[in-house]
């Protein structure tokens, strides 16, 4: 991460704003991205487990897709 | 004649006496009367009104149709099996059933009409031929038959004629047809009207005959396809009232306009009815299908499974990351703007927003489609740069013990997942902000969300998470959560006291 910013803040703001149709306070996007990171963590962890169970080498699209729904449900507010 | 006059049942004797070909009459009376009597005994006539309600299948086909209509209107929507059962029953109907019902109907109807009809005395003038037959028909049941019989007497010899004579003689010939027609006639005159009125319209309707007419028309027109049960039921009563009723004779059929209007009404009813489609031409009533609700939420773009090939992404993504580096030095915001505006020029591929339900995509890669993602609210939005997602994914994959790189198609899936995630996130946050009565989405909303996601709990604060995951500069942006309220200790104390007390 050195020398590279973690994520484009404006992009995140735009995405969330488009979906929620609301403005957001100045630094809310940081928390959002934190949430997103947690989601990604969960997703990749589940995908890795799934891949291991399926006897695949590395994470494949199949494993990711399989766990996507569950992970999303987990992060449903 | 004295005997006859004493009897209320006089009509059949008179009829029998009619100078026409006697044998037929004999036959009629002989054949019929015993049956009708027997039936009358079995089923007391008090049942006539209620009996039909109780047992629709035994009623006349017309009555059955009416019942079907009512049922289908009210309840059949939710109980298709019922309709199915009915249809099966109908199929099983044998001529014998029809004959039974016919006998029943005749017995009743005759009585009613003898009391009411003014035409009978005129007919009564005819000579009394067969007293024996008259005696047998004690019920006087067949006054209505008399009317018809007189006209039909000449035709009587040809047994094969189905339409006119069936009711009289041809029990064997064509029971089904005969039943239908007879029923219609009787319906029009006496029996069915009160029933209909009871079942369908409690409000006293004077022009029941009209109601009869409409149904009569239906049944008569499509003799065999009487099973279009819905149709009569959909007639609004007012429309029925409009018709000129008594002027129409038995033979008269409703005018064609009537038909058209019926059709219109039918269609209307069908449309309004929970999307139930009744195949018109189909005889079997039970075959209906519930129209699927095909509409999707209008705001969302139609699902196209096209997803940009990640292979094509990669070079672009690399450029991107380079851009990021450069921009990073310059400062955040302008860089971001540049990136955003630059997106389309780059030929960056926007994915269509795919609904959650359609997780199956497995698309042929290489089909590149330039589409702009539009959110539910009609706002275009970019997706996270693939480089960022990839970096995150790889970090976490490594952390969770997966070896090797993430395949491009897997990355594609991850991108899709993150798009979905942000959509979900936006909706949830919007809901929270709306609930709080705020126009803006606040950090507190995100905190609430994370709490509900069980990412934050008493053991892990948002701040701890942020510290773990976020770089320092972002961490500084975060407002520190207010320090835990010292109330905790007090509560613990109280608990301890309680325990002591206990």
UniProtKB/TrEMBL annotation, chain A:
<dbReference type="InterPro" id="IPR009072">
    <property type="entry name" value="Histone-fold"/>
</dbReference>
<dbReference type="InterPro" id="IPR003958">
    <property type="entry name" value="CBFA_NFYB_domain"/>
</dbReference>
<dbReference type="GO" id="GO:0007059">
    <property type="term" value="P:chromosome segregation"/>
</dbReference>
<keyword id="KW-0995">Kinetochore</keyword>
<keyword id="KW-0137">Centromere</keyword>
<dbReference type="Pfam" id="PF00808">
    <property type="entry name" value="CBFD_NFYB_HMF"/>
</dbReference>
<keyword id="KW-0539">Nucleus</keyword>
<protein>
    <recommendedName>
        <fullName>Transcription factor CBF/NF-Y/archaeal histone domain-containing protein</fullName>
    </recommendedName>
</protein>
<dbReference type="InterPro" id="IPR052484">
    <property type="entry name" value="CENP-W/WIP1"/>
</dbReference>
<keyword id="KW-0158">Chromosome</keyword>
<dbReference type="GO" id="GO:0000278">
    <property type="term" value="P:mitotic cell cycle"/>
</dbReference>
<comment type="similarity">
    <text>Belongs to the CENP-W/WIP1 family.</text>
</comment>
<dbReference type="GO" id="GO:0005654">
    <property type="term" value="C:nucleoplasm"/>
</dbReference>
<dbReference type="GO" id="GO:0000776">
    <property type="term" value="C:kinetochore"/>
</dbReference>
<dbReference type="GO" id="GO:0046982">
    <property type="term" value="F:protein heterodimerization activity"/>
</dbReference>
<dbReference type="GO" id="GO:0051382">
    <property type="term" value="P:kinetochore assembly"/>
</dbReference>
<feature type="domain" description="Transcription factor CBF/NF-Y/archaeal histone">
    <location>
        <begin position="8"/>
        <end position="65"/>
    </location>
</feature>
From TrEMBL, chain B:
<protein>
    <recommendedName>
        <fullName>CENP-T/Histone H4 histone fold domain-containing protein</fullName>
    </recommendedName>
</protein>
<dbReference type="GO" id="GO:0071821">
    <property type="term" value="C:FANCM-MHF complex"/>
</dbReference>
<dbReference type="GO" id="GO:0000712">
    <property type="term" value="P:resolution of meiotic recombination intermediates"/>
</dbReference>
<feature type="region of interest" description="Disordered">
    <location>
        <begin position="1"/>
        <end position="62"/>
    </location>
</feature>
<dbReference type="InterPro" id="IPR009072">
    <property type="entry name" value="Histone-fold"/>
</dbReference>
<dbReference type="GO" id="GO:0046982">
    <property type="term" value="F:protein heterodimerization activity"/>
</dbReference>
<feature type="region of interest" description="Disordered">
    <location>
        <begin position="110"/>
        <end position="176"/>
    </location>
</feature>
<dbReference type="GO" id="GO:0031297">
    <property type="term" value="P:replication fork processing"/>
</dbReference>
<dbReference type="GO" id="GO:0005694">
    <property type="term" value="C:chromosome"/>
</dbReference>
<feature type="compositionally biased region" description="Acidic residues">
    <location>
        <begin position="163"/>
        <end position="172"/>
    </location>
</feature>
<dbReference type="Pfam" id="PF15511">
    <property type="entry name" value="CENP-T_C"/>
</dbReference>
<keyword id="KW-0158">Chromosome</keyword>
<dbReference type="GO" id="GO:0003682">
    <property type="term" value="F:chromatin binding"/>
</dbReference>
<dbReference type="InterPro" id="IPR035425">
    <property type="entry name" value="CENP-T/H4_C"/>
</dbReference>
<keyword id="KW-0539">Nucleus</keyword>
<feature type="region of interest" description="Disordered">
    <location>
        <begin position="476"/>
        <end position="502"/>
    </location>
</feature>
<feature type="domain" description="CENP-T/Histone H4 histone fold">
    <location>
        <begin position="377"/>
        <end position="482"/>
    </location>
</feature>
<feature type="compositionally biased region" description="Polar residues">
    <location>
        <begin position="26"/>
        <end position="36"/>
    </location>
</feature>
């Amino acid at each position: 991460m050195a020398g590279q910013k973690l994520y484009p803040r404006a992009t995140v703001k735009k995405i969330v704003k488009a979906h929620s149709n609301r403005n957001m306070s100045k630094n809310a996007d940081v928390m959002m991205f934190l949430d997103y990171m947690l989601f990604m963590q969960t997703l990749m962890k589940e995908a890795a487990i799934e891949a291991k169970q399926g006897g695949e080498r590395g994470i494949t699209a199949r494993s990711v897709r399989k766990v996507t729904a569950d992970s999303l449900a987990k992060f449903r507010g | 004649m004295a005997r006859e006059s004493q009897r209320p049942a006089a009509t059949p004797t008179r009829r029998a006496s009619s100078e026409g070909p006697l044998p037929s009459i004999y036959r009629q009376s002989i054949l019929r009367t015993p049956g009708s009597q027997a039936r009358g005994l079995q089923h007391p006539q008090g049942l006539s009104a209620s009996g039909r309600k109780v047992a629709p299948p035994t009623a006349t086909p017309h009555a059955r149709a009416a019942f079907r209509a009512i049922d289908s209107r009210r309840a059949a929507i939710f109980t298709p099996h019922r309709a199915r059962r009915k249809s099966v029953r109908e199929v099983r109907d044998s001529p014998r059933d029809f004959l039974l019902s016919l006998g029943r109907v005749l017995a009743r109807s005759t009585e009613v009409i003898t009391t009411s009809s003014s035409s009978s005395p005129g007919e009564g003038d005819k000579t009394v031929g067969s007293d024996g037959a008259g005696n047998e028909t004690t019920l006087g049941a067949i006054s209505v038959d008399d009317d018809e019989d007189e006209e039909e007497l000449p035709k009587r010899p040809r047994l094969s004629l189905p339409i006119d004579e069936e009711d009289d003689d041809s029990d064997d010939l064509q029971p089904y047809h005969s039943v239908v027609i007879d029923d219609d006639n009787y319906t029009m005159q006496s029996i069915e009207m009160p029933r209909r009125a009871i079942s369908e319209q409690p409000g006293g309707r004077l022009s029941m005959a009209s109601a009869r007419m409409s149904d009569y028309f239906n049944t008569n027109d499509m003799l065999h396809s009487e099973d279009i049960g819905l149709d009569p039921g959909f007639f609004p009563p007012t429309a029925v009232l409009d018709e000129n009723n008594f002027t129409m004779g038995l033979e008269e059929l409703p005018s064609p306009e009537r038909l058209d209007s019926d059709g219109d009404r039918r269609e209307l009813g069908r449309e309004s009815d929970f999307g139930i489609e009744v195949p018109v031409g189909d005889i079997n009533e039970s075959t209906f299908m519930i129209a699927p609700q095909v509409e999707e939420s209008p705001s969302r773009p139609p699902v196209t499974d096209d997803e940009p090939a990640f292979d094509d992404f990669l070079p672009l993504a690399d450029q991107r990351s380079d851009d990021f580096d450069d921009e990073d030095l310059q400062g955040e915001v302008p860089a971001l703007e540049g990136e955003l505006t630059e997106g389309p020029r780059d030929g960056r591929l926007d994915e269509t927003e795919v609904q959650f339900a359609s997780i199956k995509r497995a698309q042929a890669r290489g089909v590149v489609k330039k589409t702009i993602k539009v959110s539910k609210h009609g706002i275009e939005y970019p997706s996270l740069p693939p480089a960022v997602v990839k970096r995150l994914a790889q970090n976490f994959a490594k952390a969770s013990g997966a070896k090797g790189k993430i395949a491009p198609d897997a990355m594609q899936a991850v991108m899709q997942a993150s798009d979905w995630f942000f959509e979900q996130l936006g909706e949830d946050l919007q809901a929270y902000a709306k609930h709080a009565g705020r126009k803006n989405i606040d950090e507190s909303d995100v905190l609430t969300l994370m709490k509900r996601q069980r990412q934050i709990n008493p053991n892990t604060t948002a701040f701890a998470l942020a510290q773990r995951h976020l770089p320092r500069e972002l961490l500084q942006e975060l407002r520190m959560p207010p320090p835990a309220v010292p109330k905790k200790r007090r509560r613990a104390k109280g608990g301890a006291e309680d325990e002591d007390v206990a």
